[in-house]
Design goal:
Arc Repressor Mutant, subunit A
Length: about 110
């Protein structure tokens, strides 16, 4: 990443963008959502699989997935009657892994 370009973008940060960034980070302020994203690092999973991995109910998973989809952190695709979720893009994975690295080595 070009740091001078990044600094310029930060200088131009408007209120709306700042609010969206705050909302993005608030999505990661819940341990269950963090575990969901961690599970999805290994590839797409359905609600039942996520519920088993994260140890919460399928309805709670569905609730979290709705929020994560709204923030474009995950995407959904149907296979028959099942819905599978995956990380939305490489940016989500990079952000998440940098956060883990920061916590482990910060």
């Amino acid at each position: 990443m070009n740091n001078s370009k990044f600094i310029s973008e930060v200088d131009q940060l408007n209120d709306t963008t700042a609010q969206h960034v705050a909302e993005l980070f608030s999505m990661l302020g819940d341990a269950s959502r963090v575990k969901i994203i961690a599970a999805l690092l290994n590839g797409p999973l359905n609600v039942q699989s996520l519920a088993e991995i994260v140890s919460i109910s399928p309805s709670a998973i569905s609730h979290h997935m709705r929020s994560l989809r709204q923030m474009h952190l995950v995407r959904a695709h149907k296979q028959g009657r099942q819905v599978f979720y995956a990380l939305d893009d490489q940016h989500v994975e990079e952000l998440f892994l940098r956060g883990i690295d920061h916590v482990l080595h910060g």
